[in-house]
Amino acid sequence: MSQKVYTIKFTGPAGLGIKSIGQLFSKILIAHGLNLSDYSEYPSLVRGGHNTCQISFSQEKVYAPHHQVDFLFSIVPGHWSQHLNEFLPSTLIFSDEEVSQKDIKNGTFYFLPLKDLATKIGNPQVVNTISLGVASYLLNFDIEITKKIVSGFYKNFSELNIQAIQSGYDYAKTNFSKFKLNLTHKLGENNISFYEGNEAYSLGFLAGKGNFYCAYPMTPATSVLHLLASKQAVYPDLRVIHAEDEIGVANIAVGAAFAGSRAAVGTSGGGYALMNEAVSLCGISETGLVYYLVSRPGPATGIPTYTAQGDLLHAIYSGHGEFPKIVLAPGDVDESFEMGYQSLNLAAKIQTPVIVISDKFLGESNTSTQDLTKIKPVIDYGDIKNNPDNEFKRYQFTKTGISPRTLPGTKNGQFLANSYEHDEFGFSTEDALVAQKMFDKRILKNKLAIKLSPKANFFGDKSAKKLIISWGSTKGPILEALKNVKKASDYAFLQIKTVWPINPDIKKIIDGFKETIVIENNGTGQLVTVLKSQFDFNPSQVYLKYDGRPFFPEEIVKYLDIKN
Prior knowledge:
Blueprint: E1 6-14, H1 18-31, E2 35-41, E3 48-58, E4 69-74, E5 87-95, E6 108-111, H2 114-121, H3 127-138, H4 143-153, H5 158-175, E7 193-196, H6 197-207, E8 212-215, H7 222-230, E9 239-242, H8 246-258, E10 263-267, H9 269-274, H10 276-285, E11 290-295, H11 312-316, E12 326-328, H12 333-350, E13 354-359, H13 360-363, E14 366-369, H14 432-443, H15 445-452, E15 457-459, E16 466-471, H16 475-481, E17 491-496, E18 498-500, H17 505-510, E19 515-520, H18 526-534, E20 541-544, H19 553-563
Parallel strand pairs: 1-4, 4-5, 5-6, 8-9, 8-10, 10-11, 11-13, 12-13, 16-17, 16-19, 19-20
Antiparallel strand pairs: 1-3, 2-3, 7-14, 12-18, 15-17
């Protein structure tokens, strides 16, 4: 197979397994030694609407899904018509209807009798699996391997779906043989796996000895709650709680962290707004708790099943008053996994709230990578005193701002932890000198946070003419775009992983370039605001997208080629 990236897209209403067929297709890709990156869209409907799942794949690493598709399957007639701007002249469009070619500017339309084929099998629901059979033929997949994967995926309806795969495969062999690609595949054992960002974060949380997770369901963070809840039988120390609302979630978790749990909560922007008082409680009580914030477009309910990077400033400035907090932003599934355990280590070590900010695009998209379950990270439990003396000072003034802590039940380790300003023992105070000294102690933690938090990634050559700067889920589209931009050597890329506190070394990197281009999936350039607040920063260009959709590589290529 060449290094070309192919993109396939399945479309149809909710209830017909569009996401499921995408996941199944991805499993088949992995079995054939291919790398992938996918993206799904769905309205907030249980049935109906317009759902999509697109997967870009290649033998080489695919950092992000592409916008333009090579194969589109409209599981229900008409759904293809919403994607005309994604078609290439070579695109093949399949749907159960007769359509005049003059209605399509690009691509070629082909009738695929899904309903009739499903009726012959005896179940109208298998139209998605029949489409998968057609795709399997066109891409030269091994039919037996494909059937085995389908059988394992649909365990309760194995035989039915095997028939559907064979039906689609045979129909394509009879009617579409001229479109079959002569692709070679790496069959057998390989080291490739694929994960959603939320799934990767969950596995990182477990690898980091996370043992308490609390959440109220909120798209697009809900899948973490479901996955971790299902792991309780395998991890006997793990407790997962679905609380009554986000206020309850946050305060229950503060209590769990105080009691010694390696704890996290999960939510999206609206839920995190309700958690803000608890964030401040963590700040003054010096309780290390992780907040997994998976953003979607706001304000209010906004577009609840789509994506945005609009909560960065919300995370950084969350909670009232001034206190240290750490905000981490994973850019891909590997970093989602890493920050799952890094955030727990930082929360334990720095004793302050840690926010891991992701978004729907990263959280609910799959990318192929190594087997994350085999990674065993170093665990840091922080400065826990097991044998304190009888004058234990929980909030002792130190040179680093980090005071020793004890767990409930430790002899001589009792202390007060509440929302009031306090002295070294935890007793409430309004003394001006003590209040100032305690503020200074807490804010000292920022220095250690900068030292211990993930450093920025730098891609490219420092002699490049222009520096692209970004954070979070834009990483994949930018890296994929840089494969295809006309003058790729002109560009370097700085991905900021710890977006608060800002490491001063970032300014040194930026100052090495005459031109800087900031790319963000929001409408106000929030990273620009953050960088301007820390040092003199005036980007040459700012490229923003804020329509609820992620960046696609083609958009970034076009922007860079035209503007530069």
